[in-house]
Known about the structure:
Elements: E1 4-9, H1 14-20, E2 22-26, H2 34-41, E3 48-53, E4 62-69, E5 75-76, E6 98-106, E7 114-115, H3 116-121, H4 132-140, E8 145-148, H5 150-163, E9 174-177, E10 182-185, H6 209-219, H7 229-232, E11 236-244, E12 251-261, E13 264-273, H8 284-295, E14 311-318, H9 327-334, E15 344-348, E16 354-356
Parallel strand pairs: 1-3, 13-14, 14-15
Antiparallel strand pairs: 1-8, 2-6, 3-4, 4-6, 4-7, 5-6, 9-10, 11-12, 12-13, 15-16
Amino acid sequence: xxxxxxxxxxxESLPIHLQYxxxxxxxxxxxxxxxxxADMSRVKSQDFVFFYIEGRDNKKGRFFGxxxxxxxxxxxLQGPEANxxxxxxxxxxxxxxxxxxxxxxxxxxxxxxxxxWVALDKLPTYAKELLxxxxxxxxxxxxxxxxxxxxxxERLISLIEDENEGKxxxxxxxxxxxxxxxxxxxxxxKNYNIDNTAVVALKDIKTREMCFQAxxxxxxxxxxxxxxxDIFGKDILWLGNEVFAGTGMQKIDILTIEKIDETSCLxxxxxxxxxxxxxxINFAPMQFDYYINWAREDIGGHLxxxxxxxxxxxxxxxxESFNSIPQAIIDGIASLDSISVAPEIWEIDFSxxxxxxx
Length: 358
C-alpha cells in the first residue's frame, strides 16, 4: 500500500528544491508552526513526494513527480537560515521561509507536470477515481503539505506517466525550466548540512491538541509500529492526519490503515481530545457517526475497501487523571458498534501512561 504527499511550491522555489533535493513548508515569517510540523511528521521514509505549482497569470497549475522521502528526520530552520533559498552559494533575499524541511531522492522523475484540471476537474470513468483529497484541499484553501490515499497516489502517478507517455528523465540531477514549465536534467545535486532537527517532547503534549497530535505522529512507525500499537496498529500501511472528511470543515485527527493479514486491513479512526480542545468531548460520538458514514464504501463512502467490519473508531483522551470520561460518552461511543467494529476509548496522561476505558 503506497503513501504519497503533495507539497506546494512556486516556479521560483522548485528549482531550489530540485537542486538540493528537499521538500519544505512555510509559515510566512514565523519560525515555528506546530500544525506544519504535525503534517511533516506524517511523511515517513520511502513515502512518495509530489510537487504542485499553483496556477498564476496565464500558466496553469500542475503536479510534478515522482520523488521519495529519504528518512523520518525533519530539519528545523529558523531566522535568516530559513529564508528561501537560504542555502549556501545562493542569493539571500527571497521573502519565503521554509522552516521545516525533509530530504528526498528521485524515484521516477518525469519532465512534464500533469495539469490541475486534468487531475482534479476532468471526470474519470468512475467517480471514485477523483482525487477527492486534493479537491477538498483546494475548496478549503491552504495546506502546503497534503497526504493522498493509496489509490489517489496510484492515480496521480498514472496521470503523470500518461502525460509523459511513460518517458522518464534519464538523470540523477534535476532543475526546473521556468520558461517551459518542465523538469530537466541538471548539474550535480548540491548538499548542505542542517544540524537542528525538529522534535516534539512528551512535556509539550499538555500545551495544546496540535502538539499532542504532532507528538503522536512523530513517534508512529511504518510499517513496524511499536508506539502504542494497541491504539494505532502494529503493521501500519498508511498514515494520515487532519484527513478531510467531506466538503464541510470536518477532519479526522489521525487515520491509520493497519494490515491484518494478506487479504484484510483495519481502518483505525482516532479522534483526539485534549484538556484545551475547542471541540468538547461531548461531540465525539456525533463526530464518529459522521466520519464512519462518510468513509464506508459499502454504503457509498470514500475509503476504498472500508465497511462495517473493518472501520474501528477510537477516542483517545489526554487527561491529568484516569477514569474521568463521563458515562454518557462511553455509552455513546459503545453504541457505534452498530455501524463499525469494536469501538474503543483510551486515556493517556501527561507522562505517557495509557488506560483503556472501553
